[in-house]
Design goal:
Length: about 425
């Protein structure tokens, strides 16, 4: 059959050979009727692809729904979102496939670099692909489905394809974060989280953190950035001889989305490979993972506490994580207080869990507006400032309890410092 490059597509012998191999290996409808195949090239990233039609009976066992961004790296996990097989939209797709519907523009990459028995790696149309498979395997429905097949992709082209393929559906920023992280930085952030115990071996960041109880890429980045920001601040204050308890700190919250957060990017560029082996950062990671586990276990196993997801995962609330990490960095210059921070808070009748999740959620300072929703419930700068002061107060004594009195004093300290810095201009 005739294979031709589009008039605006640059000829590439490697791509030409890959397309020929694909057509010789996989019996497309175009091959069956001896129809010409045109090779196109994306004008934005230069990716090569063809459009073709493949019957379900041919394609079902060739589809790989666990595509990787980096085929050469065995630690590269599944790059796409998790399949939502119970979702009503998927159930409709499945019903349509069983009724003989033909799906089109399913985006795949042809490669045998990994899982060679399933060379069609699905980047766009995972749910449609699954519906096609189920319809064929369950009741033998085999219709002709349309595919856009890409060849010889670079890691950057692959990441771009993954992002573009998912912009027409409801995809969370968490999935974009995960894809961008591995493409621009690598797998080190996930490996670091596994190493300190924030993820388990073989576990990946969630693609929808709202439905998960795991640390997200955004939160992991936030932890890293605040640790080093706090460390820098602590060193500067000690050199100036200033009191660390008489400052208002504003921990940083990393941005999410299709671009790498600038603060996080700066940290990775500054420290490079040494970042992930930094012993002080690792110690902080281990201590925070222990706090998260103690909080989760206490809430799950203590009948005196309502077993809410928000209470179990209080440590993973953005303001709590950012505040704790910043103070962990800040106190690197004050080892005795750092040791106090790393100790799990004392459990009391008033504080049945280390972070006193319920006490925080119902906290209300005299200066707060009636609509204030409590400590550690929002990601705003105000909440991040307050949580940093809470953990700074916690570091003043071993095994201190995060009771109502401590919370009130910490928040009052933030309010007082802000008022003092305004001076007489407020009158």
């Amino acid at each position: 059959m005739k294979i031709q490059f589009d008039s605006v597509t640059k000829y590439d012998a490697t791509v030409d050979n890959a397309v020929k191999e694909f057509l010789e290996t996989i019996r497309t409808y175009e091959r069956q009727i001896d129809s010409p195949i045109t090779i196109f090239q994306d004008g934005r990233k230069g990716s090569y692809f063809i459009k073709c039609t493949i019957p379900a009976k041919t394609v079902c066992n060739l589809l790989d729904l666990n595509a990787r961004l980096d085929p050469s790296n065995s630690t590269s996990y599944r790059a796409n979102r998790e399949l939502l097989l119970k979702h009503h939209t998927y159930q409709k797709m499945k019903s349509d496939a069983e009724g003989g519907r033909e799906f089109h523009d399913i985006i795949v990459e042809y490669t045998k670099d990994y899982n060679p028995n399933t060379p069609l790696k699905v980047w766009g149309g995972q749910h449609r692909s699954k519906a096609i498979q189920e319809a064929f395997h369950s009741i033998g429905i085999s219709r002709h489905h349309g595919f856009r097949v890409y060849f010889c992709l670079s890691k950057e082209q692959r990441a771009d394809l993954a992002l573009v393929s998912n912009t027409n559906i409801s995809v969370s920023n968490d999935l974009f974060d995960r894809q961008i992280e591995e493409t621009l930085v690598g797998t080190q952030l996930r490996e670091w989280c596994i190493g300190v115990g924030l993820l388990t071996e073989g576990e990946d960041f969630p693609d929808q953190s709202a439905r998960s109880e795991k640390i997200s890429v955004k939160l992991a980045r936030t932890f890293i950035v605040n640790f080093f920001n706090g460390k820098k601040e602590g060193e500067a204050l000690k050199e100036k001889g200033e009191d660390i308890d008489k400052q208002v700190y504003e921990p940083y919250l990393c941005e999410s989305g299709a671009d790498l957060d600038p603060e996080y990017s700066g940290i990775t560029q500054k420290y490079k490979k040494d970042l992930w082996s930094n012993k002080q950062l690792q110690e902080a990671g281990f201590a925070f993972a222990k706090l998260h586990k103690e909080q989760r276990d206490n809430v799950a196993n203590n009948k005196r506490i309502e077993n809410r997801k928000g209470f179990r995962n209080k440590a993973l609330t953005a303001s709590v994580l950012a505040g704790w990490s910043f103070v962990a960095g800040l106190l690197q210059s004050y080892p005795n207080r750092l040791g106090n921070l790393f100790l799990i808070s004392k459990i009391t009748k008033e504080c049945p869990d280390p972070l006193n999740a319920k006490g925080m959620s119902t906290f209300h300072h005299d200066k707060d507006e009636p609509t204030y929703r409590g400590l550690g419930t929002r990601s705003s700068a105000k909440d991040r400032q307050r949580m940093a002061q809470v953990f700074l107060a916690k570091s003043t004594a071993p095994e201190i309890s995060l009771n109502k009195d401590l919370l009130n004093k910490a928040v009052s300290q933030v309010i007082a410092i802000k008022v003092f810095k305004q001076g007489y201009s407020q009158f």
